[in-house]
């Protein structure tokens, strides 16, 4: 584990808005208000996202006056790296401190198809899934769009040292992204913009526990990004036990919203299904799940969950995992067992807590 001793200190973090919160169009508006030319916005984006400078003073093709105005109004140092911890398989966890002293975790995962960053969208979370040990303290606050964008920029800056690139982003860290919808949407637009980080829509995945009105709103945005639902149960009663959000947004209504999304975007969805020993992992649950999603264009990710110390959940035995998978396959469901990878972040919604491990389920 590497403790950071850079010049970054929390005292340098400012409460000025982060420039990373601005979409290109918003930056153009701001420039117009300052009687500056709109094309400067493209130059600034280039410095932020292509050259990835860490000081406005480095933006050498801008006038001194504009650089001073930028630093008077905005901050570039949104996150302070406290810890950078690397697993044997190359996974890197970053602990970042925010301007108000809260800290958040961001994870870089290495895959054979590229480098993926898992971002956090809130400090804490109010959804209260019963298997989630990391958010027992509830929601502290939403992250600004710039605080989410900065997570990706910070990881990319770390990769710059080895000339690697962030190729995909998953919004599955702590927090419910659709509970911080506007900031999440700005984040998506900034990282997807070809003059921003230029991460293709199909290389971005967002996962929700099922805030139904926001699923409709998201569908209407028609962004073509990958969309995952944390399902975890095949019926209302069991889902309400695992995920209290199901009491407010019930399973049949959730499935209707999912169908709307598919019709609107033409894309399939992924259902994340954590297997909890003796709770939702029996053959009858698999059959019920197959029936629930039989006419839905989808893929199911099975996530074997390890023992959760703060909860009573235990791991599903290996044979049972394969039996569950086979039952779904026999029913015609497109299903995979998620390969477990180097840390506790590779689970639905980021928070199906498990011990650090490196093994494959098959
Ligand atoms: S699993 Fe995700 S949505 Fe559920 S409480 Fe944890 S962070 Fe929130």
UniProtKB/TrEMBL annotation:
Q: Which residues bind S-adenosyl-L-methionine?
A: 175-176, 207, 230-232, 306
Q: Which Pfam families match?
A: Radical_SAM, RlmN_N
- Give the species: Niallia endozanthoxylica
Names of required cofactors: [4Fe-4S] cluster
Q: Where in the cell is it found?
A: Cytoplasm
Q: Give the note describing cofactor binding and stoichiometry.
A: Binds 1 [4Fe-4S] cluster. The cluster is coordinated with 3 cysteines and an exchangeable S-adenosyl-L-methionine.
Q: What is the reaction catalyzed? A: adenosine(37) in tRNA + 2 reduced [2Fe-2S]-[ferredoxin] + 2 S-adenosyl-L-methionine = 2-methyladenosine(37) in tRNA + 5'-deoxyadenosine + L-methionine + 2 oxidized [2Fe-2S]-[ferredoxin] + S-adenosyl-L-homocysteine; adenosine(2503) in 23S rRNA + 2 reduced [2Fe-2S]-[ferredoxin] + 2 S-adenosyl-L-methionine = 2-methyladenosine(2503) in 23S rRNA + 5'-deoxyadenosine + L-methionine + 2 oxidized [2Fe-2S]-[ferredoxin] + S-adenosyl-L-homocysteine
Into which family does the record put it? Belongs to the radical SAM superfamily. RlmN family.
Q: What are the recorded Gene Ontology BP terms?
A: rRNA base methylation; tRNA methylation
Cellular-component GO terms for this entry: cytoplasm
Tell me the lineage of the source organism: Bacteria, Bacillati, Bacillota, Bacilli, Bacillales
UniProt name for this protein: Probable dual-specificity RNA methyltransferase RlmN
Keyword list, A-Z: 4Fe-4S, Cytoplasm, Disulfide bond, Iron, Iron-sulfur, Metal-binding, Methyltransferase, rRNA processing, S-adenosyl-L-methionine, Transferase, tRNA processing
Q: Which PROSITE patterns match?
A: RADICAL_SAM
Residues of the active site are 105 (proton acceptor), 349 (s-methylcysteine intermediate)
EC numbers for this chain: 2.1.1.192
User: What the protein does?
Assistant: Specifically methylates position 2 of adenine 2503 in 23S rRNA and position 2 of adenine 37 in tRNAs.
Something else the entry says is: Reaction proceeds by a ping-pong mechanism involving intermediate methylation of a conserved cysteine residue.
Domain Radical SAM core, chain residue ranges per copy: 111-344
What Gene Ontology molecular-function terms does this entry list? 4 iron, 4 sulfur cluster binding; metal ion binding; rRNA (adenine(2503)-C2-)-methyltransferase activity; rRNA binding; tRNA (adenine(37)-C2)-methyltransferase activity; tRNA binding
């Amino acid at each position: 584990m590497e403790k950071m001793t850079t010049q970054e200190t929390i005292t340098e973090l400012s409460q000025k808005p982060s420039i990373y919160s601005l979409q290109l169009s918003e930056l153009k508006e701001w420039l117009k208000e300052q009687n500056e030319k709109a094309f400067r916005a493209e130059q600034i984006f280039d410095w932020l996202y292509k050259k990835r400078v860490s000081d406005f003073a480095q933006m050498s093709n801008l006038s001194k006056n504009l650089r001073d105005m930028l630093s008077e109004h905005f901050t570039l140092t949104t996150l302070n790296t406290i810890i950078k911890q690397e697993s044997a398989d190359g996974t890197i966890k970053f602990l970042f401190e925010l301007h108000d002293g809260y800290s958040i975790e961001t994870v870089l995962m290495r895959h054979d198809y590229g480098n993926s960053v898992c971002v956090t969208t809130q400090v804490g979370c109010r959804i209260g899934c019963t298997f989630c040990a990391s958010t027992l303290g509830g929601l502290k606050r939403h992250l600004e769009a710039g605080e989410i964008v900065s997570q990706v920029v910070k990881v990319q800056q770390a990769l710059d040292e080895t000339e690697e690139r962030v190729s995909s982003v998953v919004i599955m860290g702590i927090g419910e992204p659709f509970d911080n919808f506007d900031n999440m949407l700005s984040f998506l637009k900034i990282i997807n913009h070809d003059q921003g980080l230029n991460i293709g829509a199909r290389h971005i995945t967002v996962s929700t526990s099922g805030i139904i009105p926001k699923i409709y709103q998201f569908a209407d945005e028609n962004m073509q990004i990958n969309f995952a639902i944390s399902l975890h149960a095949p019926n209302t009663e069991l889902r309400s036990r695992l995920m209290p959000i199901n009491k407010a947004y019930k399973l049949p209504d959730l499935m209707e919203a999912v169908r709307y999304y598919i019709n609107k975007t033409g894309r399939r969805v992924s259902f994340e299904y954590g297997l909890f020993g003796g709770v939702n992992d029996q053959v009858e649950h698999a059959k019920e799940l197959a029936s629930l999603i039989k006419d839905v264009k989808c893929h199911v990710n099975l996530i074997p969950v390890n023992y959760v110390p703060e909860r009573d959940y235990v791991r599903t035995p290996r044979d049972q995992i394969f039996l569950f998978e086979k039952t779904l396959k026999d029913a015609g469901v497109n299903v995979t067992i998620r390969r477990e990878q180097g840390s506790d972040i590779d689970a639905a919604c980021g928070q199906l807590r498990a011990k650090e491990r490196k093994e494959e389920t098959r």
